[in-house]
Write a sequence for this structure.
């Protein structure tokens, strides 16, 4: 069960409205790596967590924090939209600056939300549940969490340069600090889990079944022209868990057959084969 | 530019058709972490790669390999569907086993694709471009790649137990081996990049701007009841890059204000405030 | 079966083209509460209506009227786009006003529809079937209809202020008048149905099963800080149907357990628990 | 800012697993009118609420309660999936009952979430942001809330009959009780707002602009064969706010023109008109 | 403006309910090539048609007919669902046939639509506006129409074999007949347009600009292993409009450069290049 | 299996950056008829092709070429975005031209892809799998291919006029030439298939079943006012395959019944009918 307190986690106070910026900020609210994504992702991972109390507790801590980040971004977007009005567009025909700003505004901020944040990204595409990850395998999921915080922080950093409004930047700095901590946090959790279970997900696949395909588990297939790709750590030396050595296959040969599928039954209406009479 | 050769990368030959399994296999073809995702993700990362020849070459190698994995899965699904026919449903009313199988079949395999693979997941939801990640920041993106291979391998491992068909399992073993290699590969690439740029993404955000929010970058906020979350590596000791020490904030206090947004202009038709006359 | 007559329901004649406005108008054509939504919603409710001749007839009347509203909006958008051309963008670099207008235009009006209306909203997101409601329960559905007309009229009212073009405004005034009538209409229908069936949907749930949870059916749970929410009609007095009295629970206590889910079977590859051996 | 406590709002304890039911329950978790919808809808309405403290507080109370309902449904679905395993499908070929159950299971419960709740509906379609409503106009939005609770309660009532598991039914009874209260609550809030602002949304549209279309605001257009639709409250008597009398237009005449759009400029490549030479 | 008459275009009367078939029929109601698609496609083409009265009139005729086809399919699905009930699922555990049928039912037919047609496909994915085509270029669009009728008829033909219910089949035969006519119709219209404008869309692109790329307009590039593709009409002889002769390029050579994009500006946080200092 | 070579198929070298054009070009990369669509469409048709070696080989040739077109468009978009930066927006408030350009830029080119191509259309809507067609019936599918190349070429032609940048236009000319060839190609293939199988898809539907609906297969139903539609080839003369003569039904009469569906079982909670007691 959840509870809400009235204060925002951090202060949100912009220096001046900026409806074009409000549109861009939607990316980190309702985009693929916005706060709605990490909020729902950590909550679902927490709700579905089986058998690991300290991980579940940690997921609930962070997921609950992220609900408050969605709240902060709605406050930020509302302030950036303060004073925006439908009439501005009609005046746009007379004044290039107004016109330009109207061109860059998300029309749904005026028409749909009435100057509030929207559950959609910077192009107005609605947030959807396929952005999130909760597989039941904690190591796999925390790799997603580390990645989501990396993309999220990258996007906030890019947004930071889109404004010189010190109020907006102050909020972004708090978010960047939290995203820095969250990257550390998932790295630390991943380190714990890799030490327990090994680095390859899933860890529990039957080892005897893995044997047959042993060579393919260590080969780099050079399928694009040039062999610059032979220069990296992935091409030489041993695998990160020391279970084998990498092989750079400079001229790979297909190991499968030329596949010729069967002609389908008549009721599929494939049409081309005379023997197919209904 | 690309070229195609007729042989599949690995042999695909099922022992017997199984249209219910065909539906499940769609998850690793056209689902969030299916082969279409990694194919398009690595290709877009490669196409958009700026200034790093060996990384670009490597991305093109893997992205090109993954096109061939989509090809293999289409071959697998076609074979699992061999012999399926529309008439089976009508017979279902008479025979529980037929009925059960028809109930578990993706109707689009009969109606839409005519016994071929579909660009959609195991529930028939079409693949879409928001599954993929290509941000221009290689470390961020490779964390996504490591994660995608973790989820993909997890799902193939779960699928493996859904059949005892040795032909299907042989193909899955090859895919599991390649997904194992790909996890190693992205770990190795991430290690290289973290050594160059530091572990936090993005690395180039202006350090002076980070100072103000220094404390929040190392704090764990305990926002859910209980403090089991204080037991992990993320709660004590120093950050992975040694730049600071973690602080477990057992009883966090909100640092922001109670936010009261302004009343909107009249043309927004907020309706409730008497001073709003048009 | 349907028939079409050539005249529009109301005259559509704009004073001058305005491609930026054309983009905004898409919201009330193909957005969540646009005319496509009410058209498809009323038609599906009418097609699926079981056992109530006068309601079905009424739904078909309004649904059929709304097809004509989609037609009117396509005419309006076409006129707003008259004369727009691809070349304008290239000239934009030279002239701020042209640039601004091009920046605010929906590029698909030029590239995809060739100056016609699109089945999408003001941000170009395609209309989809999950916008509509047709549940078979008329009271539930008519509450949706009343709501949809409220949102639709609100958006047209906001659009009205985006232009001073008297031709456009004249069309909007007709639409506002119809949306006013449609709100009245659904209120009247709801009143009839509530008098027949009671105000709670569904009405026919077995009363004996409701008894057990009697108290929770009248309680307000105060889960956010502050108790301003105790001041409304929802917090005191009796329920609208007089079946009970409201209780404001100022300090609610959870009535459920701390939930600890079971560890999953091995083939799920949860990975963390050593007893899970395949 | 938000906080989480470990106890569920109400007890969730199923008598026995039932993976087919788990799939159906997804509708009220991640469907158009599931708990994710009301949770996000009330939170966004609360976050964006301008100038009405008691309404904002109330919205935050209910929105916060609904996060806990998402939590409860994840617990319910996890329990219904307990013991489900990938191997079951392979055994299905031998046993009709197993086959039937596998056919009715959401394959993503096995492959994607590892026996946890998914942010999607009973057909596996991901939840998306276009399900929710937050327009800034409280009367419009609360009509949506009343409607959403009507659909939600209707669906839970239908689900109730899909099982005789007393544990599942006990949870559903609690949800039905809360949905009953929430319907009362929105009715009460709507009554307050209609008394303040009038029944038509928006209330503040300039009255002088409404005059021109006065007649159309009270007319029912009979556009489908038959006139059973003349029998309802919407067809005779006065409007709910007494501002006018309804008129049943039995044989409506189009008031608009036959619309003939202009031929587009050459660069649109309309192709058919010889004068269009580039 | 539109009008509705109460009779269906053709009789719809199934011999017996069949909820599994109801789910499959959704494909031709709300799928990519279902009746909703052709209805909306022809209406939008008609609404947006500029300058060609007889084509516009024809599009309105067919579009209006298709609204009636949506109506017929809703009637068909309702009848196939007659008698289906939520309780059936609970009984499923006891009886394999019931279980199998429940497994194959669309749960939304019970939970969401209350035994009515849904605006979604056979897997429950909602219909969306990106299924339709209306470009303003009639020849391009009618090629889509011919294609849509081909897919639609193919799917109805496949459905036909899924049932031996003579009532259902009678309705399908009417639909197959209309789809046959509609294929003829679009062929005839295409023939007219190709005679007027030439066979390549668009026809009006400036001829002098086409000259530079003259050779590439007649070449087949053999980019997959094997040259079976040299055997078709597309590989030899002259183009359909006689403007040139086909050339089979058995060993194609790339004509472009190796592309190396520039390093991005600092605020993009590409991270890897040391000269990028903010 | 596939291989990649470093050279682009054709040279891509723009004269100067143009981020507004970059946004428009996304339509032909990730839109409904962009290169991602034809690439995935031809590859899936090829992968799923059963029993026709030369057609499969041809589909693989073209599908493989189209992967290279996606690559070219990513290169084009990257060049058009060269030098774009987040800071530009903040300067926009001071300068109308900058503001206008920022208003027309896709914010995701800055925030999400870091100046690279995106898998989405010109409004930022992600590409999805329901854009593509692969039915197993080659004639049906090749009609889609002819249509897709028609729309694609139309859109590139419209884009051509949006710029006078000679570098961009040179690339577009190559694409227009290839789209011209591809239209020829599918026409040639369709001609072959129609000669083999007849012009109506599917060809193999049982002829005896078609007889019953014979008349409806040749009738034009005039359902919109006016009879301009009687003037085309579709209204008079014989069908394209000479199997019958067209009939123009000027005043069509419905052949179906007035449909009255049955009242549903109680657990559907239809609510209105008193006999429905649980």
């Amino acid at each position: 069960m959840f509870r809400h307190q009235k204060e925002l986690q951090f202060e949100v106070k912009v220096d001046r409205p900026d409806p074009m910026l409000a549109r861009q900020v939607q990316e980190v609210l309702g985009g693929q790596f916005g706060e709605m994504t990490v909020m729902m992702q950590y909550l679902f991972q927490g709700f579905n967590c089986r058998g690991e109390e300290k991980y579940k507790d940690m997921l609930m801590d962070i997921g609950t924090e992220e609900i408050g980040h969605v709240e902060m971004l709605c406050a930020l977007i509302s302030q950036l939209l303060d004073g925006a009005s439908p009439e501005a567009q009609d005046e746009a025909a007379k004044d290039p600056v107004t016109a330009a700003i109207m061109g860059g505004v998300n029309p749904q901020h005026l028409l749909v939300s009435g100057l509030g944040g929207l559950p959609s990204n910077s192009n107005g595409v609605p947030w959807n549940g396929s952005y999130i990850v909760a597989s039941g395998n904690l190591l796999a999921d925390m790799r997603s969490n580390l990645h989501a915080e990396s993309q999220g922080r990258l996007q906030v950093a890019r947004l930071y340069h889109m404004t010189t409004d010190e109020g907006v930047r102050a909020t972004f700095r708090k978010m960047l600090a939290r995203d820095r901590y969250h990257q550390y946090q998932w790295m630390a959790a991943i380190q714990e889990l890799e030490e327990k279970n090994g680095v390859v997900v899933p860890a529990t696949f039957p080892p005897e079944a893995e044997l047959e395909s042993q060579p393919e588990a260590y080969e780099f297939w050079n399928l694009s022209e040039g062999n610059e790709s032979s220069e990296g750590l992935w091409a030489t030396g041993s695998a990160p868990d020391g279970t084998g050595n990498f092989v750079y296959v400079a001229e790979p040969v297909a190991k499968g057959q030329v596949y010729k599928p069967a002609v389908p039954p008549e009721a599929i209406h494939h049409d081309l084969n005379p023997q197919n009479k209904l």
